Amino acid sequence: FSQWREDNSVPMNSLQDIWHSGINSFCPMSRLFISDKYSHYNSRFLTAFPYKLTTAPDLQKKFLIALGVQKSISYKDVYRILTDIAECYGNGVITPDNEVNLVSDLTNHYFTDCVNYRFSNHSDRVLLSSDSRLCTAGTLYIDDMPWVGSQDIHRTSRTVVHRSIHPASAYNLGAKSSRSDHFDEQEFEEFGQHEDIADRIRGLKREFPCGTTILKELLQNAEDAGATEVAFVLDNTDYSSKTESLCLSKELHPDWYRYQTFTSLLVYNNSTFSENDLKGIQKVGLGGKKGMQTIGKFGLGFNAVYHLTDSPCLLTRRDSDKNISFCVFDPFRKFLRLKPGSLPGTRFNFDSDKLNRFPDQFSPYSILHSLNANFFPTLTRGDYTIFRLPFTDPNVSRTVEKILSDFLQNSSNLNLFLENVHQISVYRRDTTGSKMLGTFSLSVTPLPPYTPPPSLNCEFLTQIQISKRHITI
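The chain above was modelled as a monomer; its predicted structure follows.
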């Protein structure tokens, strides 16, 4: 070093190995790095020189680089180091704690925030298992369902990730969430609206007014689906303590738990979604009715809900086949970690047993039954559809209060477009309890038989008459 500092005359490019006194062995130059973070490791797979070893650190760094020491540790280097360790041990246990810690530190430091790495084409990525072996990452499971107990998670057919590996690192490298193992391949699928959605929704918000029209659009959807009962529930409940047993873990989807905690508007009806309905609601433009461009079943009108939320979701059950679907729209990609280029949302398919495995996820929906057990079914029985519109903007809550009040004050014109729906209720719920803001019944009253004059080429239609039974504001 002294001679190189004086005249730079020492030939450097011929060095391939250097003696490492810490491991009493020669070490390839390709495994030498400048790094303060990893300088305490004395490993045959990685040796790091701290940056400040002398009183002239900048000069020393230049000298090490001239020797062939790597300036820093890159993702490519980490991938090669982990692969080298895996090849050295084969299927055996990594016994020195020092090397187990090295694998863990490298994995957590380089892959926790590297979301897109999960979707790159590296089928041979390796990951530390619970028994300290380096295995193909795609064969391991993340232990992210602590509430069901270790016996269920550590089944003999499943190998889990080492406890020192951060769940996000494991997920990004290709390990599977234990939660996803509870959904068969056909039960977990991409879901979302298909167009370049963010700009399209901004345009729709300009086209559709923010007011009682939003509720009327949702009423029209329920009417077209054959629903007879509809309820609107402004839910101010704090669900921040119910974020563990979610369909997606907050370690892997760090913004997902926030989605659970927002004040929201729940919109219930006692009809269900068919597969065609679920396909239709993903179309931003025309919706499920061919050529329909105004209000109607999942036409443009449904998208008026984006005045209230950035990410609507729905839960629907068909009693005929006991199938339950939970669909989340995430057009602005705020709450789900989605594969680049994928649809902006997710659909989960459940049966009743799987639904009960994730109680926190569905606590905002299950509260409906507690409001009125005679009106709202439990989540595992009957036909229903429940939209949840979480208010990602806290100012929306005050807007919705006014919308609901205006809706109740001006309910007399609902007979203009409702035939199937005959019961509508409005609730508000918060930490102090629940309050019914209003309820009213709609009835269909046919007029006496009537024969039009022969000169009129028309058919007499049943008249719809509204009668208010009980309204409180």
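Residues 190 and 346 are 5 Å apart (CA to CA).
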